[in-house]
Amino acid sequence: MNLNFFNKRILAFILISFSTVVFAGLAPDELVRKTSDDVISAIKNDKDIQGGNKEKIFKIAEEKILPNFDFEKISRLVLGKAWRSATEEQKTNFKSEFRALLLRTYSVALSKYKDQGIDIKPMRMQPTDEIVTVKTEIVQTGAQPIKVDYALAKDGDSWLVFDIVIEGVSLVTNYRSQFASEIKAGGMNSLNEKLAEKNKSNKD
Q: Does the reported pTM lie above 0.85?
């Protein structure tokens, strides 16, 4: 099971990940613009992170990225019909292992930041919209911009990410395909075991 969807593209996402600061009432594009600066600043101002300190890198990923994901919604979308037939224990185990997988992937990317920037595109939305897309481009010296789109859903006065599309490739769709194959072959328990093995190997 190939779980390396973001290994080549993840840095683009890291540069505009959301911090744990909740700016209630901000429009989604304003939220991206304001909080992306916080993440990039945290990386640039910490020499330990720039030097590859794994503990600090993991901490910044844990504190400044994942809290702004709606993992319940992402898990439902990624598993599709398998979510409905899974037991509560299987769902809990999946969310835990899938979150750990993404966290460690993001941590690797954080250590490779090299002064890329972000261009946030104008966004149209209505006051009643509950789901929106924020379109951005990652600007890189000597390379073509990377298109990154965020799908966000309203959660009270704030917004949470439930999908990311990088150069036309959706996180949800990509993992849904991979996980569906594993579930078909061995069931939910097999998928959770494979994810746990992957996470353990990343720790070693």
A: no
